[in-house]
Amino acid sequence: MQDLSPRPGDLEPIETASVDELRALQLDRLKWSVRHGSPHRRRLHP
Asked: What domain of life (predicted)?
């Protein structure tokens, strides 16, 4: 049977991140979205 597993160097760091690393990244992205999205929302819907 042929091994179709990717070589470690072929993967992006996010593809091998732990659950804790993924959660931290998601939280950072959510915080960024809230900071950058809120002013636009207020402007569009006074």
From this structure: Bacteria
